[in-house]
Amino acid sequence: MKKLIIFDLDGTLLDTIADLGTACNHALESKGYRRHPLAAYPYMVGNGVRKLIERAQPDASPEEVEELLGIFRQYYDEHCTDYTKPYPGIPELLAELHSRGIAIAVASNKYESASRRIVTHFFPDIPFVAILGQVEDRPVKPDPSIDFQVLLSHPTPKAQTMHVGDSAVDIETARRACIDSVGVTWGFRPITELRKACADHIVSTPDDILKLALKDD
Fold first, then answer.
1. Alpha-carbon distance 215 to 207, whole Å?
2. Cβ distance 123 to 24 under 8 Å?
3. Which is it for strands 180-184 and 161-165: parallel, antiparallel or unpaired?
4. How many Å apart are CA 40 and CA 121, to the nearest integer?
5. In angstroms, rounded to a whole number, what is the distance separating the alpha carbons of residues 164 and 183?
6. HEC profile for the chain?
7. Is 59 known to be catalytic?
8. pLDDT tens digit sequence for 159-207
9. What are the backbone dihedrals phi and psi of residue 192, each rounded to the nearest 5 degrees, phi first?
């Protein structure tokens, strides 16, 4: 049985793509750049907002990226819950995990202030042991530092911990942290990416995560 589950945020707990894409398009249009269809954004996200901006406007100079990043954050801070919603079954999963004494954490590449805001907005009754996001002094996933920070704040044997996410970034993060990886099929990336990344487990429903968490080792 697992004692700690570390969840990715975007594409795993919450469908955030409409708010992320809208904020990015707002930043692009404010500087005269072409906007992208929202359907293009699932392939741009996953490595932090700076990388999202760089992918959305690849010919932007470092100075322009910095300016676009500032515009994005100002808009997203005000609108990050406009269209975002939990995936079906996620609130119930988190409540059940908590009721069974399994600790829950979030490890996201979204900047930390926004990560904390949307997690507490959508899951106000869940006592997360950590809500971590991108900060200046910690590298983003797939560097495992964020998982190590969770384990530092809530010491748990690695054999009793698993990392759940929707992309190869999360699978690689878990591998580097030497903990079990679980790929979810309802997120932003296709199942082929999870298979190619050699996820330890691939699940299609939140209930499958509960079954894995309760499984005897």
1. 12
2. no
3. parallel
4. 26
5. 6
6. CCCEEEECCECCCEECHHHHHHHHHHHHHHCCCCCCCHHHHHHCCCCCHHHHHHHHCCCCCHHHHHHHHHHHHHHHHHHCCCCCEECCCHHHHHHHHHHCCCEEEEEEEEEHHHHHHHHHHHCCCCCCCEEEEEECCECCCCCCHHHHHHHHHCCCCHHHEEEEECCHHHHHHHHHHCCEEEEECCCCCCHHHHHHCCCCEEECCHHHHHHHHHCCC
7. no
8. 999 999 999 999 999 999 999 999 999 999 999 999 999 999 999 999 9
9. -60, -35
Query: Which one of 8, 19, 147, 170 is the catalytic residue?
Result: 8
Q: What is the CA radius of gyration of the chain?
A: 17
What pLDDT sits at residue 216?
Answer: 82
Task: Count the residues in the chain.
Answer: 217
